[in-house]
Amino acid sequence: MTVYTHFAKTVGDYDTVADKVVFKNDELHQLLIEAMPTKKEKKLQILDLGSGTGHGMKLALEKYPNSAVTGIDFSPKMIEKARQNLSKYTERIKLLKKDFNFYDFSDQKYHVILSAIAIHNSTDIQKEKLYKKIYDSLPKGGYFINGDFFKTDSKLIDKRLLELYCNYLKSNLKGKELEC
């Protein structure tokens, strides 16, 4: 099953399984927002790559009440759920049903670009191009904050991390929603 098939067609309500497939999901999103080193009253343009159901967007909108957030996600289900979850912020949000790997957002400048558990699904070539677009979209002094899975320089460490994650999935999921 491809990532696209899983999130665009299979997942009925990601909000109900997020903490079961991503260890400390809510805390991760909160840490990303806390890592934004700017004052709450600033008027920011924020981009959320792989915005999903809008959880990170909502946290950013709450912390930065003068700011606007654009969310990009390829899943129509995720975009619709985000629209519902962010209904009280309609004038401060923009939701784009796009794949951030293929959508050129670099013509717009954002003070902060966030991503949580999304970029790891991209190939190495896509990541290289994506990081270039991110760099081009940030003004001097802008921030890119990413919380995601990663590979290390050690095959042994990578193997152990994968085992830990697979055990986490097995302890939280019944059936075959995600297989290691």
CATH fold-level topology of the largest domain: Rossmann fold
Sequence of secondary-structure elements:
HHHEHEHEEHEH
The unreliable regions are none
CATH architecture of the largest domain: 3-Layer(aba) Sandwich
CATH superfamily of the largest domain: Vaccinia Virus protein VP39
- Helix content estimate: 40-55%
What is the residue-mean pLDDT, rounded to a whole number?
A: 86
Q: Given the helix and strand composition, which structural class is it?
A: alpha/beta
Explain what you see:
The chain is of the alpha/beta class and 180 residues long. It folds into two domains: 3-149, Vaccinia Virus protein VP39 (Rossmann fold), CATH 3.40.50.150; 152-180. 43% of the residues lie in helices and 14% in strands. It is built from seven helices and five strands; from the N terminus they run H-H-H-E-H-E-H-E-E-H-E-H. The protein has helices at residues 3-10, 14-21, 25-34, 55-63, 76-85, 124-137, 155-172, and strands spanning 45-49, 68-73, 93-97, 112-116, 143-147. The protein has a five-stranded parallel β-sheet, with helices on both faces. Helix 3 runs parallel beside helix 4. The mean pLDDT is 86.
Brief account:
With 180 residues, this protein is an alpha/beta fold. It has seven helices and five strands. α3 (25-34) runs parallel beside α4 (55-63).
